[in-house]
Amino acid sequence: MQLVGALGSVGHPLYYYIWSYVFPQPYENLWLRLLCTALFAPLLFSNRFSQKKWLPPYALFAITVGLPFAFVFFYLENSGSLAWAESVIIAVIILYHFGTAFATISLIFGSTAAVVLFLLAGNSVTGVPWESLLLQLPIIAFIVAVLVVIKLDRHLLLEQKQRGVATALATVAHELRTPLASLAMTITGLKARLSRLTQDEASLVDSLLQAAGRMESDLTHVNNSIELLVANSKDPHSAEREPFDPELAIRSALARFPFTGDHGSAIVSIEATHSANVLGNAQLFELVVTNLTKNALEAINRAGKGDIRVRCYVDHSRVHIIFRDTATGVSPLILEKMFQPFFSYPSHRGTGIGLAFCRSVLHSWGATISCSSVEHEFTEFHIRLPRIVAT
C-alpha cells in the first residue's frame, strides 16, 4: 500500500508532464491528475495508520480512483490509443498485487465509473472505441487469470511448506521423547536412592530431592509442550480449551524462562490491573509468551541495552497484553513482514515460524496480535483476548 502510494503520488504528475509535453496525447486532465495525487499521498503513511479502521475503505477508494477509474477514463478519451491500452494493462497488474477480492471490486467499480463519466462528459456511446476495447478485454481477462493463478500457486507452496514443518516437528518430537523418557527414569531412580540415605545427610538429600522435583516438573512441561506443538501444527483448533488467567500464564512462563546474562530476569517488569479469564489453552499461551520473550532478549543482546515491560489490563470485552522491549526496534519494511511464515530477522536467525505460530494460536481463539515499532527505540506487541464475562 505504501509503495503504491509512492508510485501514484509520483507517477500521476510525472505522466501528466510526459503525455502533455514530451509525447503529447490527444487528451489530458490536470485536475484529475491532481485529485489522484492527493488521494495517493496519505497512503505514503499507511504504516502509521495501520491500526485505523478507516484505512482499508480509504485505500480501496483512493486506489480505485487513481488506477482503474483514471486509467480507463484516459483510455476512452484518447480513443483507445496504444499507449493508454498498455497503461490500463499496467494498472491491472499493479491492482492485482493486492487481494483478489480487493482488486476485482476496484476494477469493476472503477471501470464502470469511468464509462459513466465518459458518457456524462458529452460523449455518445458511439464515441467508445469499441474495436480497441473488444481487443483489450480478452488480454486483460488473461492477465487477471494469470495473476490469480500465480497467487494460488504461492498460497499452495506456502501450505506445502507449512505441512513440511508440521511433519518435521512431529519427527523431532518423536526423537525427543526417547531421551526425555530416559531422563525421567533416571530422575525416578535418583529419588529412590536419595530416599535411602542416612539422616546425617538429610539436608543434602532434601536439596537434591527438590532439584529432582523441579527437573520432573520441567520434563512434564516439555512433554506437554511437544504434544501441544505437534497438535497445533496440524490444526490450531485441536488443542483443548478451558478458561485461564493470562496474567498467571505470563508469570508462569517468565518464571520458567532460562534467563542468562548479567541482569537475568531483573530486566523484566510486569504491570497488571485486576485479572480476567479467557477461553484458550494456558500452556500454548505460555509458549507464545516464551517466544516473545526469546525474541526480545535477542534484540536486547544485539543492542546491548533495553528491558522488557509487560502490561495487562482489562476492558469490558477483552483482556489486553502489551509486551514491549526497548532494544533495537525494527524498520517499517521489517514490520510489514513480521508475521509472515518463514520470515526471520535478522535473516540468519531462526526458522521464521515463531511469530506465525503465535498468531495462529491466538487467531484460533478469536484473539489478535499486532506489532508496532520505532527503529532504535522499541518494539511492542499488543495481544487482545476475548474475555469471559460472567452472566
From TrEMBL:
Query: What Pfam families does this protein's entry cite?
Result: HATPase_c (PF02518), HisKA (PF00512)
Query: SMART domains, alphabetically?
Result: HATPase_c (SM00387)
Q: Which domain of life is it from?
A: Bacteria
Q: What class of enzyme is it?
A: transferase
Q: Which residues form the Histidine kinase domain?
A: 171-389
Question: What EC number(s) would the UniProt record show?
Answer: 2.7.13.3
CDD domains listed in its UniProt record: HisKA
Reactions catalysed, as given in the entry: ATP + protein L-histidine = ADP + protein N-phospho-L-histidine
Q: Which UniProt keywords apply?
A: ATP-binding, Kinase, Membrane, Nucleotide-binding, Phosphoprotein, Transferase, Transmembrane, Transmembrane helix, Two-component regulatory system
| Molecular functions (GO terms) | protein histidine kinase activity
PANTHER family noted in UniProt: SENSOR HISTIDINE KINASE GLRK, TWO-COMPONENT HISTIDINE KINASE
Name of the protein described by the UniProt record:
histidine kinase
- Specify the species: Cupriavidus pinatubonensis
Species lineage:
Bacteria, Pseudomonadati, Pseudomonadota, Betaproteobacteria, Burkholderiales
